[in-house]
Amino acid sequence: xxxxxxxxxxxxxxxxxxxxxxxxxxxxxxxxxxGATPAQVSYTNRTFFAPQSFYFGIFDINGTDxxxxxxxxxxxxxxxxxxxxxxxxxxxxxxGALQASYASSVDFIDELTTxxxxxxxxxxxxxxxxxxFQFIAPFTISMLYGATSLNDTSNDGGTAAAQFTMxxxxxxxxxxxxxxxxxxxxxxxxxxxxFTEDTLTVNGESTDYExxxxxxxxxxxxxxVSIAPGNVTVRVLNEDGISECAAIRLSDTSLLDxxxxxxxxxxxxxxxxxxxxxxxxxxxxxxLEDTITLPPTATPTAAPTTECVYEGETYAVNxxxxxxxxxxxxxxxxxxxxxxxxxxxxxxxxCFKISFADEFLSSLVFDDDLWYVYESxxxxxxxxxxxxxxxxxxxLPDDASRVGILRxxxxxxxxxxxxxxxxxxxxxxxxxxxxxxSSWGVREDDSMRVTWNCFGGDDNKQLxxxxxxxxxxxxxxxxxxSDSESDSAMSVLLSMKHGATMSGGASVRxxxxxxxxxxxxxxxxxxxxxxxxxxxxxGTYYDDDEVQDKLEAAGESAPPVIGRFHAMYYTQFxxxxxxxxTHIWDVNASSAIDESTNGxxxxxxxxxxxxxxxxxxxxIPFMLKVGIERPTAGNVDAWTEGEYAHAIVIGGSGYSRExxxxxxxxxxxxxxxxxxxxxxxxxxxTGLHGAVCEWQDVDQTEVTIVVDATKIxxxxxxxxxxxxxxxxxxxxxxxxxxxxxxxxxxxVDYFDSQRIxxxxxxxxxxxxxxxxxxxxxxxxxxxxxxxxxxxxxxxxEEDNLILGLAIWLFALIVAIVVLCxxxxxxxxxxKLKIIGNSEKLVASRGADGSKQNRSKSREHVGNTSVxxxxxxxxxxxxxxxxxxxxxxxEANQQLIPNANSNNGNGAMxxxxxxxxxxxxxxxxxVGLAYGGAGYGAGYGGMNAMNAQQQQMQMAxxQQQQMQxxxxxxxxxxxxxxQQQKQILMSMDAPQRKVYIxxxxxxxxxxxxxxxxxxxxxxxxxxxxQQYYESNAGSGxxxxxxxxxxxxxxxxxxxxxxxxxxxxxxxxANMGGSxxxxxxxxxxxxxxxxxxxxxxxxxxxxxxxxxxxxELCGTDDNGNKITDxxxxxxxxxxxxxxxxLKVHENDEAIMYFSDLTIFNLRAxxxxxxxxxxxxxKGHDPMQPxxxxxxxxxxxxxxxxxxxxxxxxxxQVFTELQSQQGSHDPRIDTYHARVMVSNLRSxxxxxxxxxxxxxxxLVGKNLVE
Length: 1263
Description:
By secondary structure, the protein is an alpha+beta fold. The strands form 14 sheets. Strands 4, 6, 7, 10, 15, 16, 17 and 19 form an 8-stranded antiparallel beta sheet that branches. Strands 5, 8, 9, 11, 12, 13, 14 and 18 form an 8-stranded antiparallel beta sheet that branches. Strands 40, 41, 44, 45, 50, 51, 52 and 55 form an 8-stranded mixed beta sheet that branches. Helix 4 packs antiparallel against helix 5 (about 840-850) and helix 4 (about 805-830) packs across helix 9.
């Protein structure tokens, strides 16, 4: 064979193929390196599929200086060139497939330039024979296929994209170790990879994929599916074998943790109305770890029954023993196996320190626990301390008595970040380097390194980034002339994270403008779940040929080579908000989503992001760095205004208006021009009485927060480089919660069009020896200290106000509410045939009332919209209960008696009550109520009217009296309910207006649902009679008496209620020539507390707690614990209703969330009566009819909402393709996908045994 290899440090990659040649004989094809013509040897009459021997070694065994360094050898027999139908590999072959050939441009697989392919459409599939397809992770599937059709002239494929699905499943028996048997039965795990015309999706995680985009993708595509414990990688390469069309990676996947890891099923099927052209497919195992086994005995004997005991738990032989990670460490848990001798073997490290940091203070001795002297070995690390007490380390290369390189004592894991502070001095050559991985050298496997070279002139400073095969460099980084930074420091950020774009892999960036950011892929690192023997290295170097040449040329004038480091930080808790670090957030506790790809997280009001307690585990002292930004809206953005309204909270979830114990809240409020730090007892403020912060001139800043023993410091460049130092009053050393949020202060409204931005976040752990050294322990430093924020967020002026509203505005609201309620009351009276033939008059008034518009201003109250209240009233037993929701807390007050009740509170027979009232009114005549001629004067005089007009006016009068009665009942209930008063007084004026209007509308809507609303008339009769007796003869016919015509508004302030008192009736203006003023009522006694009850036995008779908690998730300590969703289901079971009948803001939910089964049983044994009433779902002052009060057969139309999140057509299209049926049924995997999409939670949080999953499995689309 011809060709000459170029020998360098890169390995030579060759291949050997044993297959049927063009002549039909067994052919061996061998290529030693790229660029050589492959050699071929044919063997006639050779039997295919017969076992073969394979040898490798040195050819010239007698030569001198001959050596072979073999990096890896891989062999497989599961390979198909699709030259003929291979029934030995495929149990199901694409029966209708087109077989043809085409000219191939791919030359990195084998020697073929003309390839055969098959093309098949939806309905056909390739399914591997499970006796031949048996692969143990890690392994790789390689397939060459057409982005469109590989030969347009041979079929009708055209230029549309090939769309198909690749599905793999695991066996129930373990096969991940061929030397150790395992009889355990495992669950089946499924891996689904979907290739559509615009998306590549792996088990629900997607990335962009455009096979028909000729700029990004070639006609021939080579996909590699690499499956390893802990990660799945899919790369779609172009025909050159180097550039990518698309790539996606699932890190820390639980796919193999719950399965056998032994895959025995592969299915490839086109999607509906699509096809697939494939010309090559091979599956090959990747490198496996060595397994040391004992030699077999001469005669196999039955092993004795042996078991291991570890920390009180018993394990069978060969069973895995998992040691949970300690606080401050993150990972899957260290693993070992129970050995035959009954001892637990050595643990494999799977837990890695989350963070460590060192600022090399001169007042502290060298930390041998954190750093190891890598060069020169044996030298004391203290020799690296700088002589000038500059709190730094100095490294000298190639000096046996000095420290040249340090290595971390702790192993590191990806994804991770290193932040270092380096220094250059004008009289030194400050060569420095940082390496991550198993080796210090450049171009080493499983490693990456960054170096800075000071030679080449002031502006010719080189920053280089290396992976195992390649180098990127910036030749003009950190030069004195371009940056004016001689004798200055520079921050260097070195990251290793996986991603489909160039921000994934190894990357380096600095805070110096002349240095470019650089990124390199590091597939060798990502191929391993655990980064093998990886550490942090840093120091100086002398092993570069260019450096040595420059030093020799400079001679004695050469400056000394010294590397200087002022700080070194390492962490696994970091993010650039580019979607690659979403695992550090608690998706269940967060409402914001890290879904941006441009490095900026945008938040709108009410959104927050909360840390994952498994990753954020930091002990005092520690440091946070957060990038905050006032974003700039573009022309196509859905929002219009960027703000400084940021909250960073340590110890709590989201923003709070009040101070909290064990919580520190840092607030940046650009509208008020203040930076605040809330601690347990004090609010520290900067900028309150002066313009300290550059709110309008600076769009972003880096916030540095240091938490020390008793103090916390907050520093940024936004506020004139000021630092707030505060006493934090934390009572715990360990912290697991930090959150980012949009602020929501008192008396300040933010709108949906406004946004705040976060562009990065990092957390670093100091060693305990730094305690009390990082922050000034002696003084607090802030512009102002406050006990509350009323001076910053003052309440609006409340003089001459009613419920926080101006008197004229309150009167206007009451009038609007009266008009809005007319339509409802008219409908009630018309239904009861009270109005008779007065439809036109009533309809006119109803239409006028219906035109009133409700304010759309943004609410600080929870779900109080008319629509939501109406939905509640329609989905529950009709009642007259007023429901107010404020931030998830509900207050219930019975406003009118139940239609079916007879409890002595005025609830007599409804029809009889109304008949008595009507009879009395006819006897009294209408004018009596208004002082004789008042009513007649206002409406033209009844004596002169005919009978029909009298009937219409009588009906209108009755309607007005009923309306007044209901308004009085509503306002009395509002004012007598303490929770309602608190809700109203916590609002500003516009909010109260909207809230009262909404509550009145919801109240009147409920009355309209009552079968006999006249039942209230008996109560109104008594109330009106009291009024007539106390106001006899008042109000003349011209409206000049007390409360007469025109006196309604002027008399409003004369009642205790209108002057701000709460315990009175309400006065309403009828709009005619007369008005009724309701006099103050007697004070209502305070509610009597209900007794504590034990309902445990009753509760467990309706809810099987043991079975229920099997479906619950676990907390950080591994305890099964309820959440809001499961508490809602549990409450529904107790009430005997559908979970949809329990509102998501039902107040009972908060009392039954976040409980273990032991906590719940203890609570049910001593349950406060008020909570018991909430649990039963009714007013605590009314009797409860018992469980089963609902109707399990009640249904709702959920189709639109369900399909909006689940996209059933897409799911069933995929099922139809996979099952080959026109009427497919939902399998367990797709049921879990549907439920996870419905709940907007990760797929892994939905188990196969969830009731929702069980409900969906087996159903077709119609069902």
